[in-house]
Predict the 3D structure of the following.
Amino acid sequence: MHRGNGGRRALIATALLATALTVSGCTITTRTRPVATTTTVRVQTPMPQPQPQPPQQTVVVQQQPQLAQGVTVVEATCTQGAQEVCNGLDDNCNGQIDEGCGYQSGNIQITLAWSSGADLDMYVRDPQGNELSYQNTQSPTGGMLDQDARGACNPGQPNNTIENVFWNQPNPPQGTYDVMVDYWSGSTCSTNAGPTNLTLSISVGGQVIGSYAYTINPNQRLSIAQFQI
Ligand SMILES: [Ca+2]
Ligand SMILES: [Ca+2]
Ligand SMILES: [Ca+2]
């Protein structure tokens, strides 16, 4: 292959330069502009962890109810599967008093029933001092009186000799509950009603803790039962 004089001279010059650099020990430094790089960081959002829930409080009675003198305990006569009658008793043993009668049950249910046309009034004082009655049918603690009776005699009202109070939230206030009954003889329907037999049932945590009987006189007011949760 024939190579021209020009090409031969260029090859020689390159070889001489390489030799000269090698002989002189030059160091060739290359400045390199850093290349901007983009780094993608994948951040994994942690899955939301379920927050620990406070344990559901099981409402239980701390002690047997304290009863007023003369109050007697109604021996349980409930029968599983029995028809529930609107009578202030848990006839079918399911822990709810008179379900289906138009008033509610809950973690606490207190039902008063009586046998004459008199106007009896139930008062329930909760551990924080709130008093539920026909005058004050809701408490800040979630209690409610949803069945009032005989306030205006109310001859056409269903179950008009029954009053009912309940708390249906998981955690009713803890402490002492005082259940009182007042025989208001100022009502026209109390005239000549005379001493009246009453039945009071208390259910706590889905279980009837007791049913009680008492004969109350006109104008009498007493604390039938106190219980503690
Ligand atoms: Ca029942
Ligand atoms: Ca019943
Ligand atoms: Ca009443």
User: Anything to note?
Assistant: Residues 84, 90-92, 94, 96, 99 surround calcium ion (ligand 1) (CB under 6 Å). The two ends are 113 Å apart (CA to CA).
